[in-house]
Specification:
By secondary structure, the chain is an alpha+beta fold. The protein is built from 10 helices and 4 strands; from the N terminus they run E-H-E-H-E-E-H-H-H-H-H-H-H-H. Keywords: Transferase.
Length: 207
């Protein structure tokens, strides 16, 4: 049986998984099951009682939930290309941590604004911490991670490229008011090389 991925069109976590699957050449083995995780979809809950996307049903119907375990599993399915090269594993995981931190802070900000209102969400103690974290991570990426990863367009991506790339595009999509490309030009130039790849273009956010 094929792999079945539960996802929606606006989740940065699900998009990270889709980009990785495309970069690994696994698209022909993947069935996309589009669901609304906020509607307590029964089929999704059967696979993931936490009612979150992404969730992956493996070929033996074992379910894997949460983004990073799914990515680890997908990377194990083929030896090449690898998303986690041993020779630069620490550096790659450093970038993955920054990228996932940016995704988490951005996504939680968007959800808080949706359910409590933007003004109240951003004024709260947690809201201020999230916004400060976004700024710190952007600054760190501009100064630290990105200069080490200025690959050409046709280079093999590693997991940090994908996670950071999706995180930045999610900010463009959901929080355009922070105008990060104007304030972090090296980061914006780096991001443009990622968005031009088919794996990013074919999975772009909608909705």
């Amino acid at each position: 049986m094929p792999l079945e991925l539960f996802l929606n069109a606006t989740s940065p976590y699900a998009r990270i998984v889709r980009v990785c699957a495309l970069e690994k050449g696994l698209e022909d083995r993947l069935i996309l099951n589009w669901v609304d995780p906020w509607a307590d979809d029964a089929e999704l809950i059967e696979v993931n009682p936490n009612a979150k996307v992404p969730a992956l049903c493996c070929e033996d119907r074992t379910s894997i939930t949460e983004t990073l375990p799914i990515l680890y599993y997908l990377d194990s399915l083929t030896e090449r290309p690898t998303l986690l090269p041993r020779e630069s594993l620490a550096s790659v995981l450093h970038g993955v941590g920054l990228g996932m931190g940016l995704v988490d802070a951005s996504f939680q900000t968007v959800i808080a604004r949706k359910y409590t209102g933007a003004a109240d969400a951003d004024r709260s103690h947690l809201g201020k911490r999230r916004l400060a974290a976004i700024e710190r991570i952007l600054s760190r990426l501009e100064a630290d991670t990105v200069p080490r990863h200025m690959y050409t367009d046709d280079a093999q991506l590693t997991l940090d490229d994908i996670v950071i790339g999706v995180a930045l595009d999610y900010l463009r999509f959901r929080m355009p008011e922070i105008e990060w490309p104007l304030r972090f030009p090296a980061l914006a130039a780096w991001e443009d090389t990622r968005l031009s790849r088919r794996s990013f273009h074919d999975t772009r956010f909608t909705g």
